[in-house]
Amino acid sequence: MTDTITVSVLGTGIMGAAMARNLARAGHTVRAWNRTRDKAEPLGADGITVTDTPAEAVEGADVVLTMLYDGPATLDVMRQAASGLRPGAAWVQSTTAGIEVIDELADFARAHRLVFFDAPVLGTRQPAEAGQLLVLAAGPAGSRDAVAPVLDAVGARTVWTGEDGAEGSATRLKLVANSWVIAATAAAGEVLALSQALGVDPQSFFEAIAGGPLDMGYLRAKTQLVLDDRLTPAQFAVATAVKDARLIVRAGELSGVRLDVAAASAERLERAAAQGHADEDMVAAYFASFDEKPQH
What we know:
The protein is built from 12 helices and 9 strands. By secondary structure, it is α/β, with parallel strands linked by helices. The radius of gyration is 20 Å and the shape is globular.
């Protein structure tokens, strides 16, 4: 590969670490930083340089990729990185940040002469590790070639939603998509909980809907994680789903829309986290239906 670039990855959790590895496999020079350095250290085995500070990670980078917890965390880390940023570099902002903070992120990019791309991704641990994420992106057409090597390495497809990342069109689409994911996951957990409460074998339910419009591969995959007690490692953790659910509810409030299912899902996820399931897969919200751990 001749089109190799230097990429800085800030945030190496479930998604960021997988993205960094895929960038390295594509032949790019990758430097990574994580708030807890121990979690980033294994990336060294993939030829990725792990740094002590965000500023060190971004020094001289052609593209900076952020995959952090939320918008405020992203802004904080980018401020820490400011002294190392190269004017003209592209910033691919992939954190699910919510619509309220996009203006601040775009303002930071303008102030530091960065080309800003609003580029959240759809997918969980497995597609991230396989480089098969769906990238939702907004940014200037004239600069897309500069970030194409990054998007191609981490994703199977990129859906462009606009020319100006500051408008947050990609983030808005991500929140809409995640509202469906969170609702479907909550429903999957409640189906299992109600089955148990009523003495119904879940397989009877799956047989009843098999092959029809109510059948979903996602439903079967998520419920099987509970039935097989395979909630770790999480594909998408309860704690992160809580954050996203609250961003969705807030986005609805700002737009004059009441999202009762999203609000209830957020409460279920918060209860599950309080019960000790924060780091488990988001379908562990199933446990919020019970005061004590159920037998299934």
